[in-house]
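As promised in the previous annual report, we have extended the structural survey to additional targets. Below is the entry for B-like cyclin.
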Amino acid sequence: MSVSCSDRFADLLCGEDSDEVFSGDSPACSSELEYPASCIEESSIAGFIEHERNFVPGFDYLARFQSQSLDASAREEAVAWILKVQAFYNLQPLTAYLSVNYLDRFLYSRRLPQTSGWSWQLLTVACLSLAAKMEEPLVPSLLDLQVEGAKYVFEPKTIRRMELFVLTVLDWRLRSVTPFSFTDFFAYKADPTGTFFGFLISKAADTILSNIKESSFLEYWPSSIAAAAILCAANDIPNLSLVNPEHAELWCNGLSREKILSCYRLMQGLIVDKGGRKPPKILPQLRVTIRPSDSSISSSSSPSYKRRKLNKCLWVDDDKGNSE
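The corresponding C-alpha cell record, generated without further manual editing, is:
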C-alpha cells in the first residue's frame, strides 16, 4: 500500500506557508549553501548579521544562570543528551545546534517546574524533534528518538503536544540564524584559495558543538561564534596560522571586533584547558520502572521491567505558563 506525502509527515508541526519559505523575507537556515562560498554576496551575510539578534535569547539570559535563577546543570545535561543522540543517529551539526537554540529561547520565555526532572527531558525531546524535522532528510520516530540514557519514555502524542507548545512560545520562528549560516563564508575569507575549505568547515563545526553546553557562550551572537570557530580551525593549518583574529571584523560589515576576539580567546582557553577539564556530564543510565503486574512472574526470574510512560502528566498549558 502506498503512503502519501501527507501521511508520512502527518506529525510535522512546523508547517510554514510555502510562500513565506521561498519569499526571502527572512534569512534561511541551512547547513550547506547551494553555491560556492566565493559566490555568496556579502550583503546576504550582512543580512544574517542584521537579523541574528531575533533568534537568540534576551541579553539577561546568561545572568539568570549566573544568579541561579535558572539551573545551569540541568541545561548542561540536556545539551549533553542532545549531542549523544546527534552522534547516535549521525545527525547534522546544525540539527543539534538548532535543538539547543530552541531550548534556550523557550527557557528565556517560560519557566519549567522546579520539582520534576521529566519536564526538562520532555522539552529537550520536543526541541530535538522539531530541529530534526527542519533539517534531516530522514527523521527517527518520536519513540526511537528517546535513546542514549533517556530516563523517561513519552508517547508520541505527548511529545507532539509539547512541540506545539514550543512552537507557540517561539512564535513559529524555527528558521534561525546560527553560526552555520556564516561558517562557509568566513572559511572562504580565511582561505580564499579554498585549499583547506573542507577542513575549516568540519573543524569549526566540531568546535561549535564541543562548546555549546558552556553557558559562557550565551553572551555571543552566532556571527561572533562562527568567526571565532573558523579562527580556531585556522590555527591548526600552518599556511593559515598567520590569519590575524583582529582583522576578522573586516570579513563583513556589522561584525564586532571586540566580541570576536573575546569569543576566540574563550574558545582557545577551553581548547588549552581541555586536558584538565572534567568529562562532560552524561545523563545517568537509570530507568524508571514498574514491576510486572502478572503475579506469576517474580522479580528474581524476570530482571527486566517495563519503562514508565509519562503520558498523563503533561504539564504544558498556555494559560498556566509563567512568562518571564
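The first strand starts at residue 289 and ends at 290. The CA atoms of residues 37 and 188 lie 6 Å apart. These points will be discussed at the next consortium meeting with the crystallography subgroup.
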